[in-house]
Amino acid sequence: MIFTTRIVCLLVATLALAACRKETNADRGTREGVFIVGNSNEPKGLDPHQVTGVLESNILRALFEGLVTGDGEVDGQMNPGAALRLEPDETATVWTAYLRPDGKWSDGAELTAHDFAFAYERILSPKLAAKYADMLYFLRGAEEFNKEKTKDFSTVGVEVIDKHTLRLTLRGPTPYFPQLLQHYTWAPVPRHAVLKAGKIDQIGTNWTKPKAGVMVSNGPFRLKSWRVNDHLEVERNPHYWDAKNVSINGVRFLPISNSYTESRMFRAGQLHATYGLPPEMVKYFKANEPKLLRQEPYVGVLFYRCNVTRKPLNDPRVRRALSLAIDQQAIIDSVLPGYTKSYAMVPPMAGYHPPQVLKFDPAAAKALMAEAGFAGGKGFPRLKILLASKETAATMAQAVQSMWREHLGIEVEIENKEWTAYLDAMQRLEYDFAASGWIGDYLDPLTFLEMWMPGNGNNNTGWDNKEFAALIEESFKEADAAARFRTLEKAEKILVDEVPALPLAWYSRNYLLDPRVKGWSPLLLDNHPYQKVRFER
Amino acid sequence: MFRLLASRLIQGVFTLLLLFTLTFVLVRLMPGNPYVTEKAIPAHVLEMRKKEAGLGEPQIVQYGIYLRNVVLNQDLGILFKKDGVRVTEVIKSSFPVSLTLGLLSMGIALIVGIPAGVVAAVRKNSLVDYSLMSGAMIGICLPSFVIGPFLAVTFGLHLGWLNVAGWNTWSDWVLPALTLGLINAAYLARLSRGGMLEILTQDFIRTARAKGVPGHRVITRHTLRGGLLPAITFLGPAFAGMISGSFVIETIFQIPGMGQHFVNAITDREYDLIQGLVLFYGILILAANMAVDLLQIAINPRLRNAS
Q1: Average pLDDT per run of 10 along chain B, which is 307 residues long?
Q2: Complex confidence, ipTM
Q3: Is there a domain that residue A204 lies in?
């Protein structure tokens, strides 16, 4: 017994001693210049031609740099990246990039226009089966090459003029092309390293695996260590062209899937920034530690897809009525802190004005329902809201359920499915309403509108509107940025008049940030360039 | 003895084959496939991917190829969502972590659970018994997702003694091992108390007492042996469970163990990973049960004679 007591005393003493070490991980990170961030989950990989997720893009942004690089403070502004200059012709169809003559890969090898051409050929290679290859369909002939209609890559609008000059010919005028170029699918890959690990179109070679040696990249950072489900760390790339202006020495990404664990870790000083924050914790931090809380608009929209191939959802009046009967503000106040009411589909962005059509109007909703033959909800079938078992989705559905009951007199059921089963049902059109969301890939309304084109893989509603499709097609030919926006606004007007999807809210990012972190400004795409981050010590 | 072992082994192989086949059929009955993602993959890309991964073949052919690879090459297949990663790599990288955590938890469960159960049985219906058993009941009733965050908030946030999450230093092992260990200790305590009580009422204990054997010797020499049998039966599968990881504990404490793969593999429809993990877990359970059998034979003379 005395022995046990001694052991217990010793343990307590050790722990108390351990508690005296006051330097937390975040303190050490600040001292050593390592930025520690929560990144929600284990990345599926680091090959920019194979991954598709937001969390992977957060890492790839540190590792790779495209022709242009985003600004850390101003949304939509592009700064020179791997290219010194990017020049469009007068129709914004042919773009010439003049690469930095001193551009290098992280292993010291020269970065040339051939690396870019190689990267574009690789992602478009049918055998590589890149899931995001369609991001490059803006290039002339890219879709045909990717779909094996031709085997000749020289038919694609990629031309190496000389070692440091690259000419890209697009399928039509694309004044917003620099916005697209920010996406990681447009980044170069190291031809010498990829070919050393395998063939150009071989899936799953180990050029991105940390074990095979040092992964070669061209961004401000390079891969340092990667332990699955534990951490991934990048360190300063000495060969980066602007290395002398990179303030921090590295970034450590932690795949913390549980947002409660993440906020505990933040409070215990294990992190500089969290990936997200549960709604009730937002309230807590707002009240107690508002300096740590960040709430920033994020280009994304939440909506309910309607299966327009089913009655009575094939009637636009019914869909409109359902949309007008949703009190978005009430939902936002209770479960979506920081989100904003969405009066259209495309979130507001510079120069583009989404049509202000949708608002909470129960009287108009009732009238529309009556007009469609369902006065007071009589005769309306019992439809189901399909959702995936994720935190707030069920609460939101219950709110919508009670709003529709109250304002339209209709009853809907909630069908909660596991994630993949939910996606499968939605993509097969086996649903009435499907709770969904969409995050923009780039800062342009097109990323929110193109998906509603007939036959688009992300439409998933059965909505097929010729007029809308024609307007989108027309925008592809428009070289003038402002005129193009007006065309897209017209297209969106049709979309929100017909409401194949009922908008619920525009996104916001709620997260915690250590106040010592500087150079981290709100950005609509949440794509902060890590080379701009610095610590205030 | 040898015959028993041999028959167990043969049974084990059949069980594994059955498990393998059932899993193979069941995973493919789930709605969706490994390539269902939020942003739809273009149809021609999907076709290419399925062809490349061998998912285009008829299922019976897939079954044959996979079984052959498992048996001949010990290759458990690939991950469909992570290019170039193999199932064996996933198990190799995550199992050591789960094993460490499992062994520690097992240690805690044994050190806390068995003495608690024995003391409670010896001091039956006393205050000690009641408090120990209520403690155990609370341990059984409280789920790990309550105990875990409670420990993390208390010792990590408020007292600042330990990290609230992570798996980097030895001190990171304490809280998850306590969470997992205490829950199992609670079960063990109740089981060993029950087992002890049953033996304590037996005639041979009374005889021993009548012959003047001192109290502690009655317990250590005569009762423990039989009294711990139910606890040992529980320990086999529990041990296999503990060392193969726990989704909840790993999520709460951010541990790179094997438990989360069990759940995520299903959500991701990683057919081969599910199959590989089920097979691995099956082998662990079989081995643990066999070890329990041997242990019981060693402890219980009646079983020894029967075999």
Answers
A1: 82 93 93 86 86 85 90 88 88 92 93 91 89 89 90 90 88 92 91 90 87 83 84 87 88 92 91 93 90 84 67
A2: 0.87
A3: no
